[in-house]
């Protein structure tokens, strides 16, 4: 009976570990605001993305200013010039981080936002902080006030993303319970095992196998997301960069987990060889 209970506890430990680690990564790097900003912030330095961002910002400033047709054509080059030099502004990185912070709040805390401020279930950038910088420079060049909207939303996906976002948030919320339960199951499996070395070896194998499953799952998810349609060029660039960065980040977790599993297997094997049947 001890062997059977130990086997069940070991399997539970591996299964819970397999579902806990992706949830922990999602919680730390996607659901948590600071992790999301850290993951996406370097995108603001990508030249191609900066160009698309400048175009979107300039179009917003011109549209919201509501200039007369003739004046709009005269002002547009000045606004576009200010937008093109946006990334040279000393407050650009701070404004980009604020854009990401607002966008994260729109995506993962939509229930706290008024209906008109929500992104409609899709991932949405609020580029108002960047519009404010361009407006500030444009006003100096034009010599007339330009209104700065409190919120400027740029859709980065389809409205049906809402369910996927809700699933990610709910799944990530279970990360700590899953991880804690996995730890308890591991301790229980080792405590009641007749041959702890064998149990450690098998659990290590399960951990390494989990890392392989995560790799396959990550590659599948990346293909699915990459194949999805984009709302606009800015959305496509953001998606491609974020997916690539997220994959690299999670790959580091996969490698660490695979290494931990191999070490557990080696320790179990060494203990089995030295202790023999007594363990």
Describe this protein with a few key phrases:
mainly alpha; two-stranded antiparallel sheet; 2 domains; 279 residues
User: What percentage of amino acids are in beta strands?
Assistant: under 5%
**Mean pLDDT, all residues:** 82
Helix content: over 70%
Which structural class do the helices and strands define?
mainly alpha
Main-sheet strand order equals 1-2
Number of strands: 2
- Biggest sheet details: 2 strands, antiparallel
User: Which overall shape is indicated by the principal axes computed on the Cα atoms?
Assistant: elongated
Gist of the model:
By secondary structure, this protein is mostly helical.
Give a written overview of the molecule.
This protein has about 280 residues and is an all-alpha fold. It has two domains: about 1-30 and about 160-275, no CATH class; about 40-160, no CATH class. The chain has ten helices and two strands; from the N terminus they run αααααβαβαααα. It has helices at about 1-30, 35-40, 45-65, 70-85, 90-110, 130-140, 160-175, 175-190, 195-225, 235-275, and strands at about 125, 155. Strands 1-2 form a two-stranded antiparallel sheet. α2 crosses α5 and α4 packs across α6. The protein starts with a helix and ends with a helix. Mean pLDDT is about 80; it is low at about 110-115.
Question: What are the SSEs and their pairings?
Answer:
Elements: H1 2-31, H2 33-40, H3 47-65, H4 69-84, H5 92-108, E1 124-126, H6 128-142, E2 153-155, H7 161-173, H8 175-192, H9 196-227, H10 233-275
Antiparallel strand pairs: 1-2
């Amino acid at each position: 009976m001890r062997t059977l209970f130990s086997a069940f506890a070991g399997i539970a430990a591996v299964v819970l570990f397999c579902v806990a680690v992706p949830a922990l990564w999602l919680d730390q790097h996607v659901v948590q605001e600071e992790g999301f900003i850290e993951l996406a912030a370097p995108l603001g330095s990508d030249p191609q993305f900066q160009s698309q961002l400048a175009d979107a910002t300039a179009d917003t400033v011109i549209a919201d200013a509501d200039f007369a047709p003739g004046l709009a054509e005269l002002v547009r080059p000045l606004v576009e010039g200010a937008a093109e030099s946006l990334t040279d502004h000393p407050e650009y990185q701070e404004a980009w981080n604020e854009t990401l912070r607002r966008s994260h709040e729109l995506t993962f805390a939509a229930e706290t936002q008024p209906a008109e401020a929500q992104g409609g279930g899709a991932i949405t950038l609020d580029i108002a902080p960047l519009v404010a910088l361009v407006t500030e420079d444009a006003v100096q060049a034009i010599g007339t006030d330009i209104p700065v909207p409190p919120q400027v939303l740029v859709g980065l996906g389809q409205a049906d993303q809402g369910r996927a976002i809700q699933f990610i948030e709910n799944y990530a919320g279970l990360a700590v319970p899953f991880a804690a339960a996995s730890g308890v199951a591991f301790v229980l499996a080792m405590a009641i095992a007749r041959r702890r070395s064998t149990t450690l070896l098998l659990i290590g194998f399960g951990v390494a196998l989990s890392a392989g499953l995560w790799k396959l799952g990550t590659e599948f998810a990346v293909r699915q997301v990459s194949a999805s349609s984009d709302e606009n060029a800015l959305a496509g660039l953001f998606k491609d960069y974020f997916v690539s960065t997220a994959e690299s980040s999670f790959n580091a977790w996969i490698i660490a987990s695979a290494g931990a599993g191999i070490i557990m297997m080696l320790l179990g094997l060494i203990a089995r060889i030295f202790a023999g049947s007594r363990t």
